[in-house]
Design goal:
alpha/beta, six-stranded mixed beta sheet, globular, three-stranded antiparallel beta sheet, Rossmann fold, 9 strands, 259 residues
C-alpha cells in the first residue's frame, strides 16, 4: 500500500473514533452577611464566597458569585444555574456553595436569604429556601455530577426569637428521588445536627472555607479523599468535624487527575 493511502486511511480511522466530551464545570456561589430582618449578621460569609469563587475559577469552573442575596436574588440565581448547566450540555459538573445562615425544621434544610424574616418555625417554608431545590436545579440542568457544599450551620441566627425555631445544625438530605445514575456529593461544614462557628475576624475567612480552599489547590486528589483531608484538618485545628454524604459514581478531582 502506498504511503499516501496509509495516511488517508489513518486519518479516516481517527475521525471515526468517538470523541470524549469536554467536562464542563458550572458553579453557583452564594455568600450572605447582611441579614436585614432580625437575623444576626455574619462576618465572613461574603469573604468566604469570594475565596471559594477564586479557587473554583482556578480549578476550571465557570462561577457565578451572588453576594448578600435576598429571596428574589437567590431564586433567580438558581434558575440561571439550571440554564447554564443546560447550555453546558450533558455530562457537566454542577457545584453549589452557600455561606450564610441555614436552619433545619422537620427534616428539611432551609438556606436563608438576607431578607428572611423568621420569628417562628412556620416562617421557614415561606421565607427560607429549601436546600433540596438546588439538587433539583442541577438535575433539571442535566448535570451528571452534583456537588453541594453548605457552610451554613452558624449558631443562634434568630437572636430575637423567644424560643428556638429549629433544631441544631442541618439535617441529612433526602436524595431518594434524585436520579440514581447521577453522582451526588453533599458536604456540610460540620456534622449533621451540629453547629459551626463563624470566623472571628471581620471580613476574614471562616475556618472551613479557608481549609477547603487550601485543599482545592492540591492536585490529583479524588474529591472524597480531599474532603476527608479537610475533615482531619478541621478536627485537629478547630475541633469541628465536617460531614459528607457521598453518592459519587465517578471519580473527580478539582485539579489534575483523581488518584
Amino acid at each position: 500500500m502506498r504511503p499516501f493511502a496509509i495516511v488517508v486511511m489513518s486519518l479516516l480511522a481517527f475521525a471515526a473514533m468517538p470523541v470524549m466530551a469536554e467536562e464542563h464545570r458550572i458553579a453557583l456561589v452564594v455568600g450572605n452577611n447582611k441579614y436585614t430582618s432580625g437575623l444576626r449578621p455574619l462576618n465572613n460569609a461574603v469573604p468566604d464566597a469570594e475565596l471559594i469563587t477564586r479557587e473554583l475559577s482556578g480549578a476550571g469552573f465557570d462561577v457565578e458569585r451572588v453576594p448578600n442575596a435576598d429571596w428574589k436574588d437567590m431564586s433567580a440565581a438558581i434558575a440561571r444555574f439550571t440554564t447554564r448547566l443546560k447550555e453546558a450540555g450533558p455530562g457537566a459538573v454542577g457545584l453549589f456553595y452557600f455561606a450564610g445562615h441555614g436552619l433545619q425544621h422537620g427534616g428539611t434544610n432551609y438556606l436563608l436569604p438576607t431578607d428572611a424574616a423568621v420569628e417562628d418555625a412556620d416562617d421557614l417554608s415561606s421565607t427560607g429556601l429549601d436546600a433540596t431545590r438546588v439538587l433539583w436545579a442541577m438535575q433539571d440542568g442535566g448535570a451528571r455530577t452534583m456537588i453541594v457544599i453548605l457552610d451554613a450551620c452558624r449558631r443562634n441566627p434568630v437572636a430575637k426569637a423567644p424560643l428556638p425555631v429549629s433544631e441544631e445544625g442541618l439535617a441529612e438530605f433526602d436524595t431518594k428521588a434524585i436520579d440514581r445514575k447521577r453522582s451526588v456529593l453533599i458536604v456540610y461544614s460540620t456534622g449533621v445536627d451540629e453547629t459551626a462557628a463563624d470566623g472571628e475576624k471581620e471580613d476574614g475567612n471562616g475556618p472551613f472555607a479557608a481549609t477547603l480552599a487550601e485543599n482545592i489547590r492540591v492536585p490529583d486528589q479524588e474529591i472524597g479523599d480531599m474532603f476527608r483531608n479537610v475533615s482531619v484538618q478541621m478536627v485537629e485545628n478547630f475541633d469541628q468535624k465536617p460531614w459528607q454524604s457521598n453518592g459519587m459514581l465517578r471519580r473527580f478531582a478539582f485539579v489534575g487527575e483523581p488518584r
